[in-house]
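SEVERITY: medium
COMPONENT: batch folding queue
REPORTER: lab tech (J.R.)

DESCRIPTION
The queue accepted two submissions in a row. Attaching both inputs and their returned structure tokens so the on-call engineer can compare them side by side.

ATTACHMENT 1
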Amino acid sequence: MKKIVFPLLFLLLSALPLGCTDMDDNAVPASLEVKDFVWKGMNLYYLWQHDVPDLADDRFANQSQLNTFLGTYDNPTTLFNHLRVATSIDRFSVIFSDYTVLEGVLSGNTLNNGMDYGLRYKSGSSTEIYGWVRYIIPNSDAATKNVHRGDIFYAINGTPLTVDNYRTLLANTTYTINFADYDNGNITPNGTSLSLTKTNLSENPIFINNVITQGTHKIGYLVYNGFYSSYDDQLNTAFGSFVSQNVTDLVLDLRYNSGGSVITATKLASMITGQFSGQLFSKEQWNSKAQAYYEENSPGSLQNKFVSGLNGLHLNKVYILTTRSTASASELVINCLKPYIQVVQIGDVTTGKNVGSITLYDSPTFRKTDVNPNHKYAMQPIVLKIVDKNGFGDYTSGITPTISLPENLANLGTLGNIDEPLLSAAINQIIGSGKMLPQTPSTIERDFVDAKSINPIRTEMYVDNK
């Protein structure tokens, strides 16, 4: 019987057998080795393993039967998608034919022209769409061009955007953007265009961090656009600056943050606070097979605790700005801070992603060590659900804001400006000005997809090396 370890909380644990017998690796033909990796990884770790009949532990009596099954699928991706539950349940599991691309995305490195955008339906249409620029990434091609937050575009290379063509048009390495004017929802081409080219770009998620003084309040403002662990030291430095400037309040802007590392999310929560070091921040819930194994062998590995030794603000209240693009690790921070401090959420309902993934490589332990040199496939399947210290994590419809204030393209504002509607609302809550919120339009327009969610891996919440 083949034995496989559960290493992916990054502990060297003892071996655990698969459900089927006589799973001898030597019996796997070279033509099936990638598919064999896909099935065995999904059988062991997939969160919904027990809901997929072809992933059942007793589905195959031996490797020969598994080989016959694997041979009926044209390629590893087709098999992977067959082994997933319905997309209405699992929207996020992905497979990559080149794990270097996957690793880059998880660390914030992508082929990118620097224009982050959202896409919306044109008024009264279910097929025609348009885009709007959310922000520009520094040191990118877009940063050198005349394109800014709030700009509207209706076409790429002269072809109007639709629900059927936007992925293809926006996937090009170089394309011309055709701009339009926005007038109460009406999109009118204005004859302006420019060309953008994608390059390998590393996005620093710390987009804005400054201190706003309002009376006796020193308000830290942080626009944080991704939980990328390679920038953890810079994040801690930013909070060190807040501490040295005696910040009394924090506005954390997660509007365009679609997720990332669970460890980084735990560190961010620890920096916002600081008074809960060592206490339970969140708990992981895996499939029943993995859960039972971890609970018996290393129950502490299922717990994410507040981290000590970081620059902490010791706040008992935080103001968090959100949109429908606020997802996964961002929602983790919101949900799991609530049992400890008051979270005032301003903006729109979040995405509703309460599940996380891991990277599986084709190796004896599914880690990158001793990875199979014959191919570069890797999987990022959903393997766990994350809940707060009390066991709550049911927000698949999104987390509802304390103060509803969806972004309005007719009154968008400049990020970091104290008059920008969402930041202004947070400041007014902090200083108790009693100022009325901007009037919400009778019809609320929302993005149906954005630059990050077009690539599902950019919205992942994942467990990485602890």
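ATTACHMENT 2
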Amino acid sequence: MVIGLGAMLGAGIFAAPGPAARAAGSALLAGLAVAAVVAYCNATSSARLAARYPASGGAYVYGRERLGAFWGYLAGWAFVTGKTASCAAMALTVGTYVSPAHAHVVAVGAVVVVTAVDYAGVRKSAWLTRVIVTLVLAVLAAVVAVSLAAGTAGVTHAGGGPRVSFGGVLQAGGLLFFAFAGYARIATLGEEVRDPARTVPRAVRLALGTTVVVYALVAVSALTVLGPGRLAESPAPLVETVRAAGAGRLAPVVRAGAALASLGSLLALVLGVSRTVLAMARDRHLPPVLSAVHPRFKVPHRAGAAVGAVVAVVAAVADVRAAIGFSSFGVLAYYAVANASAWTLSGTGGGRAGLVPAVGLAGCLALALALPMASVISGAAVLAAGAAIYGARRALAGRAAA
């Protein structure tokens, strides 16, 4: 549960309300509701699949076992590429809040530290994440308290702002889903927890439920103090919220909380991506050398080091905003495969068992296509490149066999 919260209560809670308000206007909470419904369907599908297949890899394993090797590979490809970009975005957020003038240098340092923590084992990583989650929740509770207690707060401020449209609500849902997606980290750790059939589903639902409540409280606080128009234009919405509420002395605390939350997300993301790399390397979709597990720490140390190295390079040169949209498309593609995989289990769980993954699959596709066009085009191009690589490898293997 803590690993999932560490991923979901990350940079998104501090950054996503602004872009989402720009897309949905006063219907920001409707966008949040859409994201929450899709996330719940994805979480339920992931939990059922994790109980059936308690192995590292998440939807990569589920797609392979339920739909075929290609769909599992495509899910893994979408996850690794999308979440590598997300890791870089989280690292850059840490750098921006800690030292804006040296954001890239700080981002690379954060990646190195997190990779070292992961190398030491998931239990130590979970302990550190628990500390981060506790502190971030305390900061968010303070933001909500001062905002709702402020004299400027009122539901009348929640109107106005950008024009509301159905497409805007969907786009806001897609942007907010980027911050919800951390529960995948729980499913990818199936080999490293006790009693995964019981532990993983409970942890997924508890982490997601807690995050939905926190996001709703923060969104209401920001809307009532700033209104959707001002919220949409703010690069640091929660900092501006506490200032507008007359609690400017809390601004440095909020900035520190944002950096700490981003570090927590980065930790959980590196854990999840490295485990998917491990699973793909075992099946030789990635170099087999990455499938090694450390004899003492029992973690995929080579996969973790490789992920950390790639993220460090991207964080040294990339722009945080460009990484977020690309990551969102990849994550939604990943969960589309997870829901399709869970749909094949519907005969074992009654009507609801088939309805939930169907809604989740449709929701993932709708949110992915509602993202900004640049994100859709770049994400689709990367998926097509992955499919082409898979086809080329199969063709070469066939010729070698002949």
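NOTES FROM REPORTER
The chain has 17 helices and no strands.
No errors were logged for either attachment.
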